[in-house]
Fold this sequence. Notes:
40% helix, Rossmann fold, 7 strands, 7-stranded parallel beta sheet
Amino acid sequence: MRETLARQTIILAGGSGGLGSASARLLAEEDAHLIISYHSNRDRAEELSEIATLVQADLTSASDRQRLLNTADSLYGLVVFTGDPCRVKDPQELEPKMHESYEVNYLGPYLLAKEAAERMKAEGISGSIVLFSTMQANALFPGSAAYAGAKAALQHAARILAKEYRGRPNIRINVISPGVTAAGMAEASIAAGKYDHYLETGIIPRFGRALDIARAVRFFLEPDNYITGQVLTVDGGLTL
C-alpha cells in the first residue's frame, strides 16, 4: 500500500482536529495532495499548512460545500471528520440540539459526500469516500439520542450512497465509528474519568489513539480496496 496515494487529491473535511490531523500527517508521508477544511479555528488549521491547502468551510452551507469541492482538481478521495456531540444538559435544550445535530452530524456530511460522488462520477474517477460516525450510533448510551441518532442516520445513508455509486466508475463509500479515542471530542470525557471503568474492568486494553483512526482512514482510501458500504467500528471492543 505504500505510496499508492502519491499525488492523489484528497479532501479532509473538518480535518484540522485531532483525528483529522493524524490522518493528514499519515497521508502526507505518501505525498498525497491534501485539502483540509476547517470551520472556525484557523490557528489550529495553520499547523497543517505545510502539508495541505486550507479552506474555511461550513458544511451546512451549500455555497461553502461547492467552494470546497471546487478547490480540488481530479478529486480521488473525501474524508468527512466533522461532527458535534450536541450534548443536552437541560431537557429544554433537547429540541434545538436535535435540529442542530441533524444539520451538523447528518445533512452537511451526507450532502458533501453525495456532491463529491457526483463530481467523481462525472469525471470518470474511481475513488473513495469515508464518513465519520461514532460508537454511540452502534450501542445504547443514555442521553446520546441527539448525537447518536443523527450519526446512525448517516451510517444508513452512507450505505445507500455506496449502492448508488458502485460500478464504473467505482466510488467506494464507507464509515468509521471511533470509540473512546484520546483525540477530538472524546478527550474531555477521558480527562473527566467518564470511561475509566472500561479500563479498570479490562473491557478494553487502552483508550484509542488518533493513529488507530488514521490507519483505518488509510485502509479505506487504498485504491485497490475491495470494500464498500460498510461501517468499521474502531473501539477496542468496547461496544461488544
